[in-house]
Amino acid sequence: MAHFLKLQSISILLAVLLLVNIQLLANSGRLYLLMGDAYMLAITMFGLVSLILFTRLIIKRVRQLAPSPWNLSLYVLWLPYLALFTYVWTQIVPAPGEAAWPGPAVGLLIIALTFTFPLYVFIVHMVACSKQRTT
């Protein structure tokens, strides 16, 4: 049961990482209205910092997992959490007027980000497994 909960916590971290980056892109119009021309630098810096911090935390958590075939479920377990967190986010922070909507290309970036995310999960999982102790 403890292994299952560890897998779920890692999946939640993965979903939150993707959610943060998706919401940064989706709310770029709002950030532009708030920050002016510095919004792109803020999105880039916050996205990279969150990526680095979450990657370190996820690698640390994956190293604590015992080797098991169930560890491969990390490649898909983040998806339901992402859907749930996105739904909750849109209920808490509703869409504003049209002035703050992102451009049409942002949707394509979000789709590309979501489709390439399993590759990120694979790379993080392999890096964490390569650094595990073998006793």
What characteristic shape results from the CA principal axes?
A: elongated
Structural class call reads mainly alpha
Q: Helical proportion?
A: over 70%
The value of Rg in angstroms is 17 Å
* Separate helix tally: 5
- State mean pLDDT (0 to 100 scale): 87
Amino-to-carboxy terminus distance? 23 Å
N-to-C SSE string, H for helix and E for strand: HHHHH
Major sheet details: none
Number of strands: 0
- Assembly state: single chain
Strand content: under 5%
Low-confidence stretches: none
Structural commentary:
The chain has helices at 2-26, 28-35, 39-63, 74-92, 104-130. By secondary structure, the chain is mainly α. Helix 1 packs antiparallel against helix 3 (39-63), helix 1 (2-26) packs across helix 4 (74-92) and helix 1 packs antiparallel against helix 5 (104-130). The longest helix has 27 residues, at 104-130. It is elongated and about 50 Å long. It starts with a helix and ends in a 5-residue tail after the last helix.
Quick recap:
The protein is mainly alpha-helical. It has helices at 2-26, 28-35, 39-63, 74-92, 104-130. Helix content is 77%, strand content 0%.
List the keywords.
135 residues, mainly alpha, single chain, elongated
Give the secondary structure arrangement, pairings included.
Blueprint: H1 2-26, H2 28-35, H3 39-63, H4 74-92, H5 104-130
Helix pairs in contact: 1-3, 1-4, 1-5, 3-5
